[in-house]
Amino acid sequence: MENQPTTPSPTELRTEEFVVNIGPQHPATHGVLRIEATLDGETVKDILPHLGYIHRGIEKMTESMPYKQSIYLTSRMDYLSAHINNHACSLAIENALGIEVSARAKAIRIIMDELQRLTSHELWWGSCAMDIGAVTPFFLGFRDRERILEIFEANTGNRLTMNYIIPGGVMRDVLPSFVTDVKELLKKIKGYRHEYDQLITGNFIFQHRTQGVGYLSKEQAISLACSGPVARASGVSCDVRKHYPYDGYEKLDFNEVIDYGCDNWARYLVHMEEMNQSIHIIEQLLDNFPTGEYRTKIKGIIKLPEGEYYQRVETARGELGVYIVADGSNKPYRMKFRTPSFSNLGAVKPTTVGLKIADLMANMSTIDLVVPDIDR
Amino acid sequence: MSKEELKQYLEVTYPDLEVKETVNFPLLLVNKEDVIPVLTKLKDASETRFNFLFCETAVDRNPNFEVIYHLTSTYYHHDLEVKVILEDRENPVIDSVYGLWEAADLYEDEIYDMFGIRFKGHPNLRRIMLTDEWNGFPLRKDYQDDKIISL
Amino acid sequence: MISMIEFTDITAWIHSLLLSVMTPTWTYIVELALSGVTALVVLLVCVIIMVYMERKVAGFMQLRWGPNRVGPYGIFQVIADVIKLLLKESFSPNRADKVMFNIAPALALCVSLMALAPISWAPGLTMWDTNIGILFITAISSMGVIGILMAGWSSNNKYSLIGAMRSGAQIVSYELSAGLSIVTAVALAGTLSTNGIIQSQADGWWILKGQIPAIIAFLIYVIASTAECNRAPFDLAEAESELTAGYHTEYAGMQFGIFYLNEYINMAIVSIIASTLFLGGWMPFHLPFDYPVVHVFNHIMDFIPTWMWFFGKMFLIIFFMMWFRWTFPRLRIDQLLKLEWKYLLPISIVNLLFAAVIIVLHWHL
Q: Is C113 exposed, middle or buried (0-12, 13-18, 19+ CB in 10 A)?
């Protein structure tokens, strides 16, 4: 063996690696994200994400805006978890000022959060199936999401960037028919769940495309600071609702969904089970929906005392952290959003290198990236 | 460990470092040179096990920079804030923690892009959000841009 | 029995008419041109119906209406789309191989149309009634990949190149099991002529008479031919979510339209072949049993015109292909090749052996 030449002879078949830019406009990136993939034939050798195509400088903008206005910018980060982003920001300000929110406002907030998680996961389910090649689930996912958006529209006046949760409570009271509406909605959604399983979960091709693909070990998930369903599918217990409960999650009965499969299939199952848990949470709150004030009166101009504040919540994608450095004025000195998609983006490379280009799309969709959430 | 316990532990374990607290977390002030040893010890010590770097960011306290590490442990679920103050405004350099947490790859790229703080030992330090030719570092307090319009 | 005007009567009438005005050589040439144009027109009408059907089927499966604005029930939508494609500029990208780029769609289309020649449309209505009809179709259909490879290579686009290479690997592999399924049917019928194969099913279709091997061969043929047409779940050559549009990423206007047309023509051809081989082509549904009731049944079936049988079977198989497309996720390239080389090909070979045993022992009905 030692005598063999190390350089290939001219007659030998040589292969070359080539670089493909996937994005910024590409059906699988769900937004303007560019991934520079080095391919050897069909096999992915290396991945380098390029961000910034939708970078709006939200962190810079907050520095020149009063606290109340900054909250509205957060809806534009992860537009699929707008309620939850608003919630995080409002909680940070409330905790800094020491405001206690009424029980009704808390219940409304959690119901909205969990409905938001449902919409996000339903959209995710559709787009995940579409990235793997099935088009029909996309329409089914949107059908169910549409029902929830109707509730949002009726109660908050908006469908995507709600700006409904504000410091002190919520913007306006829910409709009198809110409880019955949501109950009816949940009944409908539960009725649809078997279609999801029949169409995709039980599908032979889908299982083969996801099982054992995109392996992300527990150590790697922790090292990459992954959170949300991505980390929980690798066996990391990281649900903020369990470990750092806020607004009454500690009183509710729900399970943190953890899977030890570490692959795309595990991430799929975690998402699916989280939808069931969200429905369960909402049902508990609807059964004894509190009456009372929907908003605590707070001062018109919010001035946070000097100091550092950190608040985290669990969005549909993982842990969202709001880090506020206040200098005593009505504007934040520095506001940092620790967004889940930005950290989870790091998981694309270790899961994909060595697999086929089709698996890159499958991994990206189960890691559930939202590009404005990455770029901010 | 709870916040108070952790604070006491830090005071005992790191007598030469300043231990403060913020509203939410205990705060450990670390010298620029000691970043890697201290963080390595925090990560590996069986009492703390800070294996999860959930946030790394910087704040421009003109003229100083603060680099802030938010750490948590998936074993004990306690949190810690570590702060490093960089005084050299012209050429701020700090050691990269990429060797401890892979998540630092993207975090430090972003800090470099926004504050111009260089990380020694980072595998691929680049302007991740802005273009390579961008003038200045936007999140610095003295950043000037003619295109900024005040509403 | 009511005397019906058969297609043979019409063709004979045209033949005598032409002979009365020109020499036999010219008659032959004019008849060739006439039959070619007729087949093309019939096929284009089929494609228009298929495109409309595909959209309606997709709409039905996806809880939406499908086209419903242009004309009643949206039936003119396809025509509007064709007009749109014709009006669009066809351009080739910078630094593309312009000649190859422009030839590729035409070549792909020509190859698909050539496969029409030996098809038996109705009793006595075959453009080229040759004794090697099925062999000719098999030979021609594997050439379709050349157009795709040319398109992918000449586009100067990495997505196109990957798509074209995938398509090459896929068609070359799936040719094998499709061919072996065809051989099973040919072995049962004992002839390579399309007309002969249909005639051999006069007392019952091969899928009924040919026992289990015929059923397996039919299923494998449908799967393999779906893959040959680059249809989902085997649409790796286009793979919208991975390669944007695969080999035709750079094509616009009618050049893209021709690739689109080509896909549907291929679909029509493989379903016609599947129905010819296993479902008796234009042959009505007959049961292969010797009872008076069965004879009455068979006789009633004869009253349904042959063209209805022909197009009914064709569109039934097309509907199945559409059903696959709108419900299944896509396979990965290695899974696709594994499916062929590890499962379909061995099954086809064993199936062919079984069929041979059945034929030798005369176990088929």
A: middle
* Cβ under 8 Å to C: A residues 100-119: none
Q: Which domain holds residue A309?
A: 18-375
Structural domain span for residue C101: 92-360
3-state secondary structure of A297: coil
Contacting chains of B (3 CB pairs or more, <8 Å) are A
CATH number at residue B80: 3.30.460.80
- Does residue C40 contact residue C119 with C-beta atoms inside 8 Å? no
Task: Specify if B114 maps to a domain.
Answer: no
B136 belongs to a structural domain: no
Identify whether A6 is part of a domain: no
Query: Per-residue DSSP letters for A237-254?
Result: ---HHHHS--TTGGGS--
Number of domains comprising chain A: 1
Residue B19 located in a structural domain: yes
Residue A335 forms part of a structural domain? yes
Nearest CA in chain A to C159: A20
Closest C-alpha among C263, C186, C266, C178 to residue C224? C178
In a domain, C162, yes or no: yes
Prediction ipTM score: 0.87
> C24 lies in a domain?
no
A220 to chain B: which residues are within 8 Å by CB? 102
Q: A362 CB near a chain B CB, below 8 Å?
A: no
Regarding chains C and B, contact by 3 or more CB pairs under 8 A is answered as no
Q: Which of A16, A26, A42, A366 to mutate to test the interface with C (most CBs of C within 10 A)?
A: A42
Residue A8 located in a structural domain:
no
**Is C75 a member of any domain?**
no
CA distance A65 to B93: 30
Chain A residues with CB-CB distance to B149 below 8 A: none
With left for phi above 0 and alpha for psi between -120 and 50, is residue C230 left, alpha or beta? left
Q: What is the pLDDT along chain A (376 residues), one digit of tens a residue?
A: 445 545 556 667 777 788 888 878 888 777 788 888 888 888 888 888 888 888 888 888 888 888 888 888 888 888 888 889 999 989 988 888 888 888 888 888 899 999 999 999 999 998 888 888 888 888 888 888 888 999 899 988 888 888 888 888 888 888 888 889 888 988 988 888 888 888 888 888 888 888 888 888 888 888 888 888 999 998 888 888 888 888 888 888 888 888 888 889 999 999 999 988 999 899 888 888 888 888 888 887 888 888 888 888 989 888 898 999 888 888 888 888 988 988 888 888 889 988 888 888 889 888 888 888 888 8
Measured CA distances, B147 to A210, B79, B143, B144, B150 (Å): 47, 40, 12, 9, 10
Q: Chain A neighbours among B 13-72 (CB < 8 Å)?
A: 22-25, 27, 51-55, 57, 59-60, 68, 70
Rounded Cα distance, B7 and B2, in Å: 8
Domain span holding position B44: 3-89
Taking alpha carbons only, the member of A184, A173, A161 closest to residue A72 is A161
